[in-house]
């Protein structure tokens, strides 16, 4: 067994591993390039970091490519119609991120001449950018010695130093440890190396400790219990909310859609008419709460799990002839062949598919 070093060169050890084993990601500048002084594009770093919040790398890759194809510069994103941005984001979840993305792009374009601030403080002043995202952009794009702490880094740090206070209360101690070992040289590569280590080696279950550059210095491994970390507070049971969704189809194969208000859950997204459920209250679950009179028939139930609650929607469908009394200009008939182009969140896609099986297959074939 290797003799333990009292003050291991944590940064050097990890960067040597990263130089050999880093992931190639579309928003990343590789170590050979950073060694030449090249930095990642701040716009690309910001866009990827916002998308990666609560979302996997594999899920983000196609969205990242799609956004850059439509809006190559932050000024392009700032000038885009909000409904186009929400439509491009549809399916990625956590839709407040998309609304803040648009606001932040507008702030960078209009107040900063299209140039992102290069400090944590300046970045945190932008809409939707918190401590983690500001630190990540500052380190990766601007070579600032910032302490970057995401879920992967929390796992590495809590195991490396046996930080056994439960999350989220232990975040401060973890951030302090990250700050302590983040080097002045190559802080962006170090931050990304920590992320890669947590994503590929120091995984939640069955970590590959034998391959870890820190295996001779990891306190959790020394106690033979790395999977115990990070310690998390006991989860509370998610409340269950109920409501109903109404899928109306007209004689020409169009589905009635409407746009949600800009604020609140799924704000600004597209939906079929529903009852007034929220994360805190139930909505009606029968046709007495339908948006207009029609021959509604039950089409089953869907379940969708949000971060803080579970939603169960009773689905009703109706074939509608002629016109209906639209609301305040927020409703329209959309051809079923064009559904994929709409800003429909996953829960609404589930509702439509429950009422009209293969609806999105028809959309994708056009």
Here the CATH topology of the largest domain equals Endonuclease III, domain 1
Total of domains: 2
What would you call the shape? Answer: globular
Gyration radius, rounded = 24 Å
How many H/I helical runs?
15
Number of strands: 6
In a nutshell, what does this entry contain?
The chain has helices at residues 10-21, 31-34, 42-52, 57-70, 74-79, 82-89, 96-111, 120-124, 131-142, 151-160, 171-181, 187-200, 219-222, 346-355, 359-364; strands at residues 240-250, 254-259, 270-271, 297-305, 310-320, 331-335. The chain has 366 residues and is of the alpha+beta class. The protein has 2 domains: 10-228, Hypothetical protein, domain 2 (Endonuclease III, domain 1), CATH 1.10.340.30; 240-355, Alpha-Beta Complex (Nucleoside Triphosphate Pyrophosphohydrolase), CATH 3.90.79.
Describe the structure.
- The chain is α+β, with helices and mostly antiparallel strands and 366 residues long.
- The chain folds into 2 domains: 219 residues, Orthogonal Bundle (Endonuclease III, domain 1); 116 residues, Nucleoside Triphosphate Pyrophosphohydrolase (Alpha-Beta Complex), CATH 3.90.79.10.
- 39% of the residues lie in helices and 12% in strands.
- The chain contains 15 helices and 6 strands.
- The strands form 2 sheets. Strands 1-5-4 form a 3-stranded mixed β-sheet, with helices on one face. A 3-stranded antiparallel β-sheet has the order 3-2-6, with no helix packed on it.
- α1 packs across α12.
- The longest helix is centred in the first third of the chain and has 16 residues.
- The chain is globular and about 75 Å long.
- The model has no long low-confidence stretch (mean pLDDT 93).
């Amino acid at each position: 067994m290797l003799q333990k070093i009292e003050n291991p060169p944590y940064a050097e050890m990890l960067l040597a591993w990263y130089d050999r084993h880093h992931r190639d990601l579309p928003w990343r500048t590789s170590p050979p390039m950073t060694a030449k002084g090249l930095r990642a594009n701040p716009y690309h770093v910001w866009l990827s970091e916002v998308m990666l919040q609560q979302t996997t790398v594999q899920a983000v890759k196609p969205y990242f490519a799609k956004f850059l194809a439509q809006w190559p510069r932050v000024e392009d994103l700032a000038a885009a119609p909000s409904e186009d941005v929400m439509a491009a984001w549809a399916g990625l979840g956590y839709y407040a991120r998309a609304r803040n993305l648009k606001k932040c792009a507008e702030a960078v374009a209009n107040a900063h001449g299209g140039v992102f601030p290069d400090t944590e403080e300046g970045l945190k002043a932008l809409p939707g950018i918190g401590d983690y995202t500001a630190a990540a952009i500052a380190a990766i794009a601007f070579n600032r010695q910032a302490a970057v702490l995401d879920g992967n880094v929390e796992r590495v740090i809590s195991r490396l130093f046996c930080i056994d206070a439960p999350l989220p209360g232990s975040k401060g101690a973890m951030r302090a440890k990250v700050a302590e070992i983040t080097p002045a040289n190559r802080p962006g590569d170090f931050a990304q190396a920590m992320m890669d280590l947590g994503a590929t080696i120091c995984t939640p279950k069955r970590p590959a400790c034998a391959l870890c550059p820190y295996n001779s210095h990891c306190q959790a491994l020394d106690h033979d219990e790395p999977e115990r970390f990070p310690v998390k507070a006991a989860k509370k049971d998610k409340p269950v909310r109920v409501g109903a969704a109404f899928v109306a189809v007209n004689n020409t194969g169009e589905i009635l859609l409407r746009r949600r208000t800009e604020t609140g859950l799924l704000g600004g997204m597209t939906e079929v008419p529903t009852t007034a459920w929220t994360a805190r209250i139930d909505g009606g679950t029968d046709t007495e709460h339908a948006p207009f009179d029609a021959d509604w028939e039950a089409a089953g139930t869907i379940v969708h799990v949000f971060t803080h609650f579970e939603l169960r929607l009773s689905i009703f469908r109706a074939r509608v002839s002629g016109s209906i009394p639209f609301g305040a200009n927020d409703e329209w008939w959309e051809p079923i062949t064009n559904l994929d182009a709409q800003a429909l969140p996953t829960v609404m896609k589930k509702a439509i598919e429950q009422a009209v099986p293969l609806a999105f297959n028809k959309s994708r074939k056009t």
